[in-house]
Amino acid sequence: MGLISRWRLGPGIRELRFVNFGHWTRLGEILKRAESGIQWWLGDWMNYGENQYREKYAQAVDAHEETGLNVDTLRNYQWVAERVPPVMRITNLPWSFHQAVAALSPDEQGSWLAEAKGAGWTYRELKGAIRKAEQKRNFKLVEAVLEKVWERIQDGCYTADAILKCGECGKNIFDLDADQIKLYMQQLVEGDK
């Protein structure tokens, strides 16, 4: 006799008649595993269809009709599955953790996922740690530009155009425009330099 003697699917499983308690607990394990993998399965399925059949828009519409899921949801599953290859996926971590790192480089994905698993983080803790690290990295970049602008001012460059251009070759040394340099100059003035 099978795992389940009779069942109906729909918005829920109704009229279950299990053979025994062991079969009932086994179905729970299968459902948990399916819940944690369905986003990957749908995302990989979408990517395969796109790569194999090259009809991305039609495929998404068809997938929506087949699955009953919102097209944006399917595209999100597809994007995460594309950005986080199977070798980077950690089985013990929820799909949402992988979604949180999908925009990062593969090295960063691996580091953050390993950290989250090792520390037992929640999704919010992972997102917060990533956000904090990005803010710190962005601040260092801004601080580095601010210091470079200050050095140019100390070298006798007092206008935004003079600060921007190399005195020898005339090239833009900041890859910024004059208005952006003026904002840095204003920040220096307000910071008492």
Question: What can you tell me about this protein's structure?
Answer:
By secondary structure, this protein is mostly helical. Among the domains are: 88-121, no CATH class; 132-193, no CATH class. 67% of the residues lie in helices and 5% in strands. The chain has helices at residues 21-53, 56-67, 71-83, 95-101, 106-119, 123-154, 160-164, 178-190, and strands spanning 4-8, 14-18. Helix 1 packs antiparallel against helix 2, helix 1 crosses helix 3 (71-83) and helix 4 (95-101) packs parallel to helix 6. The longest helix has 33 residues, at 21-53. The model is unreliable at 3-9 (pLDDT under 50).
Continuous helix count: 8
Overall morphology:
elongated
How are the strands of the largest sheet arranged?
1-2
Report mean pLDDT, rounded to a whole number.
82
Distance between the termini: 82 Å
Structural class: mainly alpha
* Biggest pleated sheet: 2 strands, antiparallel
Relative strand content: 5-15%
Unreliable stretches (pLDDT < 50, length at least 5) are: 3-9
Q: Roughly how much helix do the residues carry, as a percent range?
A: 55-70%
Order of helical and strand elements:
EEHHHHHHHH
User: How many E-type strands?
Assistant: 2
* Gyration radius, rounded: 27 Å
List descriptors.
single chain, 193 residues, mainly alpha, two-stranded antiparallel sheet, 8 helices, 2 strands, 5% strand, elongated, disordered N terminus
Summarize the structure.
The protein is mainly α and 193 residues long.
SSE layout and pairing:
Elements: E1 4-8, E2 14-18, H1 21-53, H2 56-67, H3 71-83, H4 95-101, H5 106-119, H6 123-154, H7 160-164, H8 178-190
Antiparallel strand pairs: 1-2
Helix pairs in contact: 1-2, 1-3, 4-6, 6-8
